[in-house]
Amino acid sequence: MSHLAIAAGTPFAAQTATAIADEGGNAVDAAIAATFMTWVCEPGMTSLGGGGFCCVWPPDGPPITIDGFVEMPGRSADKRRFGQGDRVSMPYGGGVDTFIGPGSIATPGALAAIELLWKKWGSLPWRELIEPAIAAARDGFPLPPQSALYFSQSYDAVFSYTPGARHLALRDDGQPRDVGDTLQIPELADSLQRIADEGADALYHGELGRAIADWVDQHDGLLGIDDLAEYAAVIRPCRMSEQRGWRMATNPAPAVGGAVLVELVSLLGERPRGRWSADDVALFARAMERAFTDRNEWLRNGQLERMSDDEFLDAVDGQRRALASPSTSHTSAIDSDGLACAVTTSTGYSAGVVVPGTGVLLNNMLGEIELNPAGLHALEPGARMRSNMAPSILRSADGDIVSFGTGGADRITSALAQVSANLVNLQMPLDQAIEHSRCHLEWRDGEPILAHEPGLDTSEVSFETRSFDEPHMYFGGVQAVQRTSQGELLAVADPRRSGGAIVT
């Protein structure tokens, strides 16, 4: 039996990781099995039809990120289809506009990333890591609160689009599914069985991928079998930063999430001190305004890929001086040997498309407006899309290791920056660092508004504010694990997201 800590989006996923540890699996094995389980048991939040990133920091080597984010499809698509999509609005988080349907589906990469992660660091057989998810899809699982909440606010706009999507959100009598309702997805079980037998090739070169590509093509989308066949996960050096004796490894370019996280942490510097004061909250609001403005500029011009880490940090230092005078699931795992792993995957808001016969919910990453400032389908086919995801690992000079990450679209980086500040600057225990009240800067009609949970003093914030009545999954669902310098293992699942956390 391996000794490890796991924090995942659902208790089912955490329990699956525990079973993998019982079989002798390491942190990577546990994270992979848990991720497959989230692809089943967090419907609407994530799926193997989306994209993702894996951050790994082995005890005897440098940290790396496996980039499995989505790509722009359309290598063989009719050019008249470009720019076509179904724009919808839904009330989630105070109001969201996005594009759904076949025209919003990007080439999925999460499965390729997970397989590459297994090939490099996995110790148990591939099939063994998928079998629990197959059983859950076939036999049924209880619908988690986060999925029920999301369906309640997105059904009309998104999950009414195809029969397979409706099955996820509605019972057989047509009524909305309640938290805890048993949901079975036998077609997804069959697809996962193909993946267990054939590996990721089932999606990228096999019949599963052909069924998906054929359906998308027949419904005027861009994703083709050649887009799937050309896809490959990429290993990249992590973006690194240092703060008060802690080193952080996070997602590098072309993703923007890691850069924004590093900028937010750097702009905060050694604040807050002692507690989150009104001045600290106001500083963080201004930091978010600066970092999110930079993010939008990076998304527009691709400047981030051309900057070295040193050039990037020099630019952030300049921003700090100026300041001194704004659907996803995450799994974190760490074992007693110090192997740390953070995996974030997403289908965006989802395309509302479950291809018949597959059970696979597909992403709507082409339709996420904040990730596509140049407009729908502006990228060249084969181009890697940008992402806010930032699975990250912290290591202290004393030997502490923390693996953490979250879902939450553009709230990912603000949530992680606040948790990092709580850990590093305020030296909070892991559970308190995650449970502490959060805020996030958003824009309405071009004006910044600070959304916040109860318990934060916003009296010095210069922007308009809006308060939530209680902690809310809008502000992310940080799943984190820690191995202390004394070898103690800790795991915390964010109560905002009803996840699962277990130490074996």
H/I helix tally: 15
* Poorly predicted ranges: 317-326
How much helix, percentage-wise, in residues? 25-40%
Strand order of the largest sheet: 8-3-2-12-11-1-20
Mean pLDDT: 91
Account of the protein in words:
With 504 residues, the chain is α+β, with helices and mostly antiparallel strands. The protein has a domain at 4-235 and 333-371. Helix content is 36%, strand content 20%. The protein has helices spanning 11-22, 27-41, 110-121, 126-139, 145-159, 163-169, 186-198, 201-204, 207-218, 225-230, 257-268, 278-301, 309-324, 412-424, 430-435, and strands at residues 4-8, 51-57, 64-68, 86-90, 96-100, 141-142, 182-183, 234-237, 239-243, 246-250, 328-335, 340-346, 392-396, 401-405, 439-444, 447-452, 464-467, 479-483, 489-493, 500-503. A seven-stranded antiparallel beta sheet has the order 8-3-2-12-11-1-20, covered by helices on one side. A six-stranded antiparallel beta sheet has the order 9-10-13-14-18-19. The radius of gyration is 21 Å and the shape is globular. The relative contact order is 0.19.
Write the layout of secondary structure elements.
Blueprint: E1 4-8, H1 11-22, H2 27-41, E2 51-57, E3 64-68, E4 86-90, E5 96-100, H3 110-121, H4 126-139, E6 141-142, H5 145-159, H6 163-169, E7 182-183, H7 186-198, H8 201-204, H9 207-218, H10 225-230, E8 234-237, E9 239-243, E10 246-250, H11 257-268, H12 278-301, H13 309-324, E11 328-335, E12 340-346, E13 392-396, E14 401-405, H14 412-424, H15 430-435, E15 439-444, E16 447-452, E17 464-467, E18 479-483, E19 489-493, E20 500-503
Parallel strand pairs: 16-17
Antiparallel strand pairs: 1-11, 1-20, 2-3, 2-12, 3-8, 4-5, 6-7, 9-10, 10-13, 11-12, 13-14, 14-18, 15-16, 18-19
Helix pairs in contact: 1-2, 2-4, 4-7, 5-6, 11-12, 11-13, 11-14
